[in-house]
Amino acid sequence: MSFDTPLYLCGPLREPKQMLADQEYSGHTSIHDDDMAEKLGFRAGPIEGPTHFSQFVPLLAEIWGQAWFERGCFSAHFQNMVVEGEQVRAFVERPAPGANRVRCWAEKADGTAVLEASASLGPDDGPTLLDERMARLRPPERLVILADLHVGMQGAADEQVRMDADQHMGNLYPFSLNQKLERITENSPWYSSAEGSPWGRAIIPLEMVSVLAEYSSAQAAFPVKQPVVGLFADQEIRMVDGPLFVGEDYLIRREVVALSESKRTESYWIRTRIYSADGSQLKAEMLLNHATLKHSYAGYPQ
Length: 302
Description:
Elements: E1 8-10, E2 24-25, E3 28-29, H1 34-39, H2 57-64, H3 66-71, E4 72-78, E5 88-93, E6 101-108, E7 113-121, H4 129-135, E8 159-161, H5 177-181, H6 206-214, E9 230-239, E10 250-261, E11 265-276, E12 282-293
Antiparallel strand pairs: 1-5, 2-3, 4-7, 4-9, 5-6, 6-7, 8-10, 9-12, 10-11, 11-12
């Protein structure tokens, strides 16, 4: 007997933890601070978006196995903020035989949408959810906060980065990998030990690839007017020759690939490429839509 009924994998309800309450940049706290969030009209400091990516990893590993960690891409549009104490569940569509892209989404316990996403297995996986969203962007009419940026602008210099297990990841990410692993929603021995890892090394969790990629971002020196408060609106992480390893040196290069605008935000889309330490081999990429809040910039209407 056969049916054409679509089937889905889902994980348990989890309570993701807030670890960015003390985040700082440009001399001020971020939207993840409760007081700052309330000033900007939000009820509390939201949990950082990529925190939710961890809930999808066991589901995608169930579908694609080890290959997911080596060639997987997770491409997400954030829909509603989550604050600590709220519960979230991840869903992944089961792929048709031979398919290399699936639909994903996350919901709060009451059904409120958290994010929508595509997950795919490269290199021949076609357009991602964010590729499709970028293709629909209209050129901004007039930018103020981002007036000095242009598509194609490169970061100021190559950036040398690494993530050791006990390394404090700076003002943007005031914690270490080991501290994150104490609170991550889905832990794995692969994140902390070489034993049992198919690669003989501890690997960086998907949500912490975002931390590695943003750790040195100030060195890019993109001329965004300050002080201004921003948030992640869209984010994609792709493994090209993965996974990324704990305690490994990498080189980062950045490029502005799109500029956009909404009623409340000005956005700059940055593609961050993570290479081997000598810059010769592309290992992973991150596409990130930094949405800057217009009303957080003094005198914006003028």
